[in-house]
Design goal:
Elements lengths: L1 E5 L3 H12 L6 E5 L5 H8 L3 E5 L7 H10 L8 E5 L4 H10 L3 E4 L4 H107 L2 H17 L2 H33 L8 E4 H16 L3 E6 L5 E4 L1 H21 L6 E9 L3 E8 L29 H11 L4 E6 L5 E8 L4
Bound molecules: adenosine-5'-triphosphate and magnesium ion.
Adenosine-5'-triphosphate binds next to helix 9 and helix 10.
Length: about 425
Amino acid sequence: MKILVVDDNQMNLTIVRHYLEELPGITDIFICRNSKDVKAIVDENAIDILILDIIMPDISGLELLKQFRENEKYDSMPIIMLTALDDTESYRHCFELGAFDYITKPINGMEFKSRLKVAVESKIKSNKLQQLVAVTQKQNEELKEINAKLTEAKFQLVQSEKMAAIGQLAAGLAHEINNPMSYVNSNYEFLRKYFLRLSDFLHYIDNRLRVPIHQHKQEALCEAATEVIAKYDAYQFNLILDELDNILSDSEDGIQRVTKIIKSLRVFTRSARDDEKSSYDLLDLIHQVFLISKNEIKYVAYIEIDVPDDIILYCNGVQLAQVFVNILVNAAQAIKSQNRSDMGKIRVTARHTDNSIVIQFEDDGPGIPKENLSKIYEPFFTTKDIGKGTGLGLSISYDIIVNKHNGSIQVQSEYGHGCIFTIILPVIST
Ligand SMILES: Nc1ncnc2c1ncn2[C@@H]1O[C@H](COP(=O)(O)OP(=O)(O)OP(=O)(O)O)[C@@H](O)[C@H]1O
Ligand SMILES: [Mg+2]
């Protein structure tokens, strides 16, 4: 503890120093006779306690007290006034200016030491408090930093979950597109073959009929026509024409399927900015979501959609599609995990109430054990094998429905008897 004693009287300084030396806890005693030097000494030596004589030439003790108290940097430095003035008015004035204590001269050793002890203890406590505040402030800063890092990490995870989901769906989509494309491809080969045969035949007709017609030779014309018909039969054009009809309608169907898939993908390519909402036809959205998650579902469950065609949602379509895909894929994966011999069932229903839209996804999979029901929305909670599920799907879905759309998401499930996920969204008039 460092103490500075300021008095213009050498005798007083000697006495004070003597008493201070007897006090425990005081490590450095600084003496000063010139009030003009006080500030510099306090600053240079990080003085803890200041003892000031009131009446001094140049700057008075009261003036110094006032200056220190005006600067909050010295708030925690106790200042003890030392004076021969022994009247209530002086006491009052000192305390009003912020003095910690007031000691009268001539100095009584016992009194001086016990008052100084109080000042030292108070300063120790205030130092501890300051350290505590500094530690808390530092911890607070660190927490803020950790929080910022966590937010960033969460964002990265959400992005990577999205990427993983997109990757999974992309594989399914590739499969869905590959099917129609492969038969359009093989149809094209037939078309090419038939076209060659047809063009060959047309050239033949041209060669064979043009001259007799030109020369009006009836007999030669008849002969040529007979040959043409024989060639027509040999080429089996009646069969080819039937087949061409099939090939064309088949290809048309394939092209339409691909077009539909691409159209449904557009819902995912629109910007997923949080605040971007517009009107979506719920049934349309659900059809599009089924189309892109079809590959995950079609081998394990039948799908039943019971959604009216007049429900319009005001929402962020990309985000809602993400929620629906996750719930559907969860249901399909849960059914698949049962290794059952029959196909499962996933049913989607929706209804419009006065002020909300209720959408339900029901599956007849294994359901969720009671002890897990409260955990499924926690980030990283998954019962799937390592590398299969990140456990983020439902936590992101919860965030999208509850925080971004002011809705609610609930699950009803009895272990062994499937699940029902219910999403309720408020109706927003646009
Ligand atoms: N329809 C369901 N049937 C049974 N269990 C389910 C169903 N839906 C969710 N769950 C349980 O909830 C857990 C958390 O689901 P969530 O979608 O958050 O993560 P995940 O599917 O495991 O992983 P991710 O979605 O990241 O691939 C699942 O691991 C599963 O145990
Ligand atoms: Mg999931």
